[in-house]
Amino acid sequence: MSRLAIYHFDTLLWIARLGTFRAAAERLNTTQPAISARVREIEDQLGVALFRREGRVMVLTARGRDLVREVEPLCAGFERALTRASGFAGVAGVVRVGAGEIAAAGCLPGFVRDVERDLPGVTLEVELDLTTRMVQQLMAGRSDLVFLAGPVANPGIRTAPIGAVALVFAASAATAATIAPSRDPIPIWALPASSPLNAVTHECLAQTGISARAVATCDNVRTLIDIVLAGCGAAVMPETMVRADLASGALVEVAPRPRRQLQFEAAIRETERDPLVLELFRRASLLQIDP
Description:
Layout: H1 6-18, H2 21-27, H3 32-46, E1 51-54, E2 57-60, H4 62-86, E3 93-99, H5 101-106, H6 108-118, E4 122-128, H7 131-139, E5 145-150, E6 157-165, E7 167-172, H8 173-182, E8 186-190, H9 196-208, E9 212-217, H10 221-229, E10 234-238, H11 239-248, E11 251-253, E12 262-269, H12 275-284
Parallel strand pairs: 3-4, 3-5, 8-9, 8-10
Antiparallel strand pairs: 1-2, 5-12, 6-12, 7-10, 7-11
Helix pairs in contact: 1-2, 1-3, 1-4, 2-3
């Protein structure tokens, strides 16, 4: 066994989690041939086949499943022991973080600041996306930690609530002046159908009686706000992102605030064992998106 090292077992575990040599190579920042070589080294050392190919997916053999079950808690325990012993001093690594725009504006800057201060060896790679795609990225192992609109009901994901954001139904001052007197149909803007904000928009239209000429969509909250500020309709928007515009009068609320707020959560994979990711998740669970 002297020829096998921790990175061999780490490789084995990531192939088992992600299903392909290519995905494991991306996660471990190496090449697919390097991953294949590591697997051959393990199999040659043990004298058994650990994977078999089914289409494009590598499936564990019965012996492979047994090895993964035995190795995973040992590797996790080893990393955890070393990390705790050092108090995270000198810990290094790349952690891929996904966030929606609202969460990014509400709590991500402070989170990044604290990580850079306390864990200078850690590099964060942040990508903004919509909730549905972030869940897919997390489950595929292409993200390690995500901040998203919830609640998310997925048995493969562990979540921690980080607060809620109030919503406002608003338009520019000029557009608002045309709504109340005439009730003429106006353009309405919303995020795509996969976003919880889209559902709230349609609820508000049904409850307020505001007549929509059409419901157009934009997958960027900041751009949606700018469109409304330009006088091109109304939209349901996160109050945190338009607070200054409401205070200045550039935006005017055209209906009572929706009773429903957007709930936000930090999330990791349920099977996550990396001590660094678990520590960042612990820190994320203490955040408040709108303190």
